[in-house]
Amino acid sequence: MKPIWIVDDDQSIRFVLEKALLREELPTRSFTNPREVLQALDAGGDDDGPQILVSDIRMPGGSGLDLLTKVKERLPGLPVIIMTAFSDLDSAVSAFQGGAFEYLPKPFDLPKAIELIRRAVEESQREEVAEERMAAAPEMLGQAPAMQDVFRAIGRLSQSNVTVMITGESGSGKELVARALHKHSPRANGPFVAINTAAIPKDLLESELFGHERGAFTGAQTMRRGRFEQAEGGTLFLDEIGDMPFDLQTRLLRVLSDGHFYRVGGHSAVKANVRVIAATHQDLEQRVKEGAFREDLFHRLNVIRLRLPALRERREDVPMLARHFLQQSAKQLGVEPKRISDAALARLSNFAFPGNVRQLENICHWLTVMAPAQLVEPKDLPPEVAPHAIEAAPVRHVAPAAESPETAPAEAQGPSVAAIVPAATAAQKNGHSSWESGLEAEALELLASGRHDVWEELTKRFESKLILTALANTRGRRIEAAQKLGIGRNTITRKIQELGLE
User: Fold this and answer.
1) Residue 10's Cα: distance from chain center in Å?
2) Backbone angles phi and psi of 82, in degrees to 5
3) Per mean pLDDT, which range of 178-192, 217-231, 254-268 is the poorest?
4) Which structural domain range is residue 255 located in?
5) Among residues 187, 276, 292, 334, which is most buried (max CB within 10 A)?
6) pTM above 0.85, yes or no
7) Residue 253 lies in a domain
8) Do residues 81 and 153 share a domain?
9) Which parts of 252-349 are beta strand (E)?
10) Do 443 and 456 contact (CB within 8 A), yes or no?
11) In whole angstroms, what is the distance from residue 388 CA to residue 298 CA?
12) Do 259 and 157 belong together in one domain?
């Protein structure tokens, strides 16, 4: 990781931060004035620059605010934390609206300062990963006519700053389209900031969007810049706009109308130079009719509408996407890429993909971890795609002890798996889940065999499959897998040991 650069003429401040960050295993490099920082950037280049920059405002040899402006010209994505005495607060707040990640009032509480720095580091690393993925892979893949229409629309909008509304089902790639619109726009050198309005509680969303002033509400100990300010000069992507609370829709309409907004608890208007791209999977016209979405906001957002097709509408793209995701997953996990047979690709192409491209990507991650051989066959596909537990289950007849299987009458043999298959297929056609039908077939088979550990056997297999699938989905991160499964960290660790999944 790149070092954290600390700029302060006060040796005690530098010393305290250096030692505290060293304990956190975060590398540092210190400077006494802005001139030294600019010289270091000139000497080393952008690749040898800082992970984040922590700078005081008032120093001999230059202002920290001037340094902020110059650094942002060279490294627009670099998080910068400004340290300021309370007497400098007003000038700091007004001066660094266009760039600082956050500010740190002096005297500061050291644990809170380290927490803020770590948050800035995590934000920087997330941006680096996103940029690497964007650079390493094509922006979007698709040969289907519906996707070619989307690509042409992105090209036509490349020199425009017009507001765009992207519609499409969940998982169809709406954020990718938004990023492509930003990348090919006049604002490409500015930040791209995304926020899912449905994922943030209503009482926090206003502060998240517009920021808040110090003391605006309980717990607001410092001024905080919202997403609109973070996206200054760039693009703000509002995902799932249809779920935005009605009262916040009014505030958003005001920003789109006159380009100004107020922070929560603030009295001074802040100018917003931001292009807004919105997205939703909902029918906004219907939401307007129901009174859940403002009609005037709908028309403000709906200047240009791009409809993103569902994956089932572009089945010819499935083989290309599947191979791409298998390559991508193998690279992330550091393993040899799996190959996929034509028969397995045909099965994937005929699947409806209710989760669209995101679901296909998750399936490819699952196959990279779970498929037993290097060549993926139809039988290796996950149950929701290939219900092979039903299709390939062996027919096993169980006869009474006095008779052999060959001589036992059909009615004495009990229910067989063969008898279940037509019913399971019918259930699947009627909308019932294929894995439940497969479980029923497997349970009947075990029960008919006379075993007395059916519960233990099926529970063990169910838990193993569930945990392995969750781990594949989270690239092996146990804590995240436990959170997604709704179980505790200790529980998933214990289960992995008990089930022999290490």
Assistant:
1) 40
2) -100, 125
3) 217-231
4) 140-309
5) 276
6) no
7) yes
8) no
9) 260-261, 270-271, 275-280, 304-307, 339-340
10) no
11) 46
12) yes
